[in-house]
Amino acid sequence: MHGDFEAQRHWLEITTHLPSNSWYRYDLMYWGLDYPPLTAYHSWLLGFIANKINPDWVALDASRGYESDDLKLFMRYTALITDLLINISAIIAFCQTCCKTRSRIERNVLLFVALIQPGLILIDHGHFQYNSAMLGFTLWSVICMTQRRFMLGSMFFCLALGFKQMALYYSMPIFFYLLGISAGEAKRNGISSGVKQLALIGVTVIVTFGTLFAPFLTSLEDFLQVIHRIFPVGRGLYEDKVANFWCAISVFVKVKKLFPVETLVRISILATLLAVLPTSINLFLANLKSVDTANPKKLLLTLLNGSLAFFLFSFQVHEKSILIPLMPATMLLGDSDGVAWEGSVFVTTAMFSMYPLLRRDGLAIPTVVMTILFNILYGWRALFGPKSRAGLFVRFLAVASYLLFATLIFCEEFVSSVPLPRYPDLYVVINSFVSCCIFGALYLRYSYVQLFDDGAVVLSSGKSKEKIQ
């Protein structure tokens, strides 16, 4: 349990007993706090409750490594309640407000599929984290923006960023979406109207971040320490064997040895921008031309493409970061005539890419069972059902990929006990390389759907199905 569970418990401990200016400084070698202030406030609230129930759970220093059954139950409940209040409520609201043209059965299918998506369940409730808060705030932002509540949507996205900095994966699409909305307003109703709207959004962002960071703004040193902890450049290009471009290419070219960290930061930023900009600009132009913001598909596709580009090419990526593009991919699963099969392949590949991490946590069997269950209940039908748009070649590749996943998992479980001194991480490296290749192919496919596939049917809150404009 001395992993993310202990990290989350430790943050309850330090936020309960220490002043805020010590939260990002206290004994950083032992699970130092490295998420933005909203995570710290969330930890403080949970720590306050825990301290009332049993002070031993969060006693400063003395509680390190505490693993009683009642503490585990309390922590599991906090993850479940956070998920229910922020993420699951957003999923329900999305199905009710953004899918009105779909039948009740279709909306219920989307709701069911989103709730059984195994990635978030296993990471938040197995491995143990609170990613549901960040993802839920982002989905609330999407809901508000498609209802033309841009200030409220901006606030929710700031809350997502204030909870976990990985929400930056969504930042470019959100920025270009709002910029396009404001530019479109200026085009139709005059520059002053567009500037006013953009200014209101800007004020909302400043006030929200100012409120979140207020306790740390009294001292420049305290503020810079928070920023340093949130963006730890010194950790390196990627962690462990993550299924992104830099880790995959290191099989052939050891980029970490070829370039210093500063150069790698610049290269990764450039590569990420080049991958994110095409679909983000496409979203900007769509909003510039159209007054219809009730269609969430264009925004979801851009969030998916942008966050997947960040996962593939950005600096300091972790295996769990695949949950970020997985959220919009999951919410697009209800689009049975559009990108359903892509989403089912994405979910399965994401689970495979996180398998080594989940296996270390003793979650190998739940991972396999839940992935198979997801495919039985939805994924297999998306690929092979009568309404599937997947062609024969796609079906062949999907089946081949799944068989390869099963083979590698079998080898990792039953063959990896045979020592390979020269290749101790062979199966993990193969896992990350194969997963990266599929993620790259999905990035190209989703980008094509957004940029060129005008025949893709959209989710709309209007009275009829429309094509992406």
Question: What is the element layout, followed by pairings?
Answer:
Layout: H1 4-17, H2 37-53, H3 69-97, H4 104-116, H5 118-128, H6 131-146, H7 150-163, H8 171-189, H9 191-213, H10 220-230, H11 245-249, H12 255-258, H13 261-289, H14 297-313, H15 323-331, H16 340-353, H17 355-360, H18 364-384, H19 392-414, H20 426-451
Helix pairs in contact: 1-2, 3-4, 3-6, 6-7, 7-9, 8-9, 8-13, 8-14, 13-14, 14-15, 14-20, 15-16, 16-18, 16-19, 16-20, 19-20
Keywords:
Alpha-1,3-glucosyltransferase, transferase, transmembrane helix, 20 helices, mainly alpha, 68% helix, globular, transmembrane, 469 residues, disordered C terminus
Summarize the structure in words.
By secondary structure, the chain is mainly alpha-helical. The protein has one domain. The chain has 20 helices and no strands. The C terminus is likely disordered.
Major sheet size, sense and barrel closure: none
Overall geometry: globular
Rg: 22 Å
Question: What's the structural domain tally?
Answer: 1
Question: How would you spell out the order of helices and strands?
Answer: HHHHHHHHHHHHHHHHHHHH
**SS class:** mainly alpha
Number of strands: 0
Question: How would you state the average pLDDT, rounded?
Answer: 89
Give the proportion of residues in helices.
55-70%
Q: What's the total helix number?
A: 20
DSSP strand content: under 5%
Uncertain runs: 455-469
Cα separation of the termini: 50 Å
Transmembrane segments: 74-95, 107-123, 167-186, 198-220, 264-287, 299-318, 363-380, 392-410, 426-444
GO biological process, one term: protein N-linked glycosylation via asparagine
Membrane topology: Multi-pass membrane protein
Pfam families: Alg6_Alg8
